[in-house]
Structures are given as C-alpha cells and as structure tokens.
Design brief:
2 domains; HU family DNA-binding protein; IHF-like_DNA-bd_dom_sf; single chain; elongated; three-stranded antiparallel β-sheet; DNA-binding; alpha+beta; 43% helix
Length: 92
Amino acid sequence: MNQSELIAKVAEVADLSKSDVEQLLKTVGSVVQDELKSGGEVTLPGIGKLSVKHKAARKGRNPATGKEIDIAAKNVPDFSAAKALKDVVAGA
C-alpha cells in the first residue's frame, strides 16, 4: 500500500476528507521525527514502538576491494512490533 492508497483508505474508514487525512499523517510524521530526534520513543497502539538505537563503531570490509574500513558509530531508528500486530500477521 503506497501513501495515496493509505490516505484514501483511512479517509474512507474514518469518514474524513483525503486532505484532512494527508495533513494528519504529515503531522504525525513530524511529531514522531521530533520525538526520535530528541532521543525519545513513540508508541503506536496496536502497531508497535519506534525508538532510537545506537550502533557502535565497527570494522567493515569494502566488497569491491576487500580492504578493511572503519564504520562510524551512528543512531538509527528501531521498530518493535506490538503483540497485536504480530498475532494478526501470524494468523494471516
């Protein structure tokens, strides 16, 4: 499902206009980004939890040359699925 299909489906189910749903999704995205940027986490009921995970610096290997390279430490988004979502997918 792409973004426009999601907007159309949510608008249909919630009986809202597509423009209202589009604005809502943009706002939710912005709020989630701001919260994760500040190191927090966001729980989406029935879906899961978004948080920030720190990946330590490590050694890697350039696949083209085989030469060892240093990979810098970084923060990455992390998602943990809620039990309800896992149960629905497992039963599909």
